Amino acid sequence: MSKNVTLITYPEGTILKSYDTFVAIKPTASAADNMVTEEYYSKTTSRQINEFFGGAEKAAKVMKVPQTTMDTLAKFLEAYHS
């Protein structure tokens, strides 16, 4: 991963943060779906997301959610673990 990417790992899952934006979540629970923002940011962020999910084909199958949902989930996890 590049220098502008942060992986934040909690018992509930891992969050991918590109620059200052939460863009993807991989929950640890097998019953939960991986999520990615439906917002397009840049080629670089898209590449980071593809790498996070193990390739473009896998990333394309991930559930897309509004950016507000991604922010809410990530900020909740941050607050819960603070």
Description:
The mean pLDDT is 93. A hairpin with a 7-residue loop joins β3 and β4. This protein has a 5-stranded mixed sheet, with helices on both faces. Helix content is 37%, strand content 30%. The relative contact order is 0.22. It is built from 3 helices and 5 strands, in the order ββββααβα. The chain has helices at residues 43-53, 56-60, 67-80; strands spanning 5-10, 13-18, 21-27, 35-37, 63-65. With 82 residues, the chain is an alpha+beta fold. The protein has one domain. The protein is globular and about 30 Å long.
Observed structural traits:
alpha+beta, five-stranded mixed β-sheet, 82 residues, 3 helices, globular
Summarize this structure briefly.
The chain has 82 residues and is an alpha+beta fold. It has helices at 43-53, 56-60, 67-80, and strands spanning 5-10, 13-18, 21-27, 35-37, 63-65.
Q: Could you state the order of secondary-structure elements as H and E?
A: EEEEHHEH
Average pLDDT works out at 93
Strand percentage:
25-35%
Q: C-alpha Rg, in Å?
A: 12 Å
Number of domains: 1
Structural classification = alpha+beta
General shape: globular
**Major sheet: size, sense and barrel closure?**
5 strands, mixed
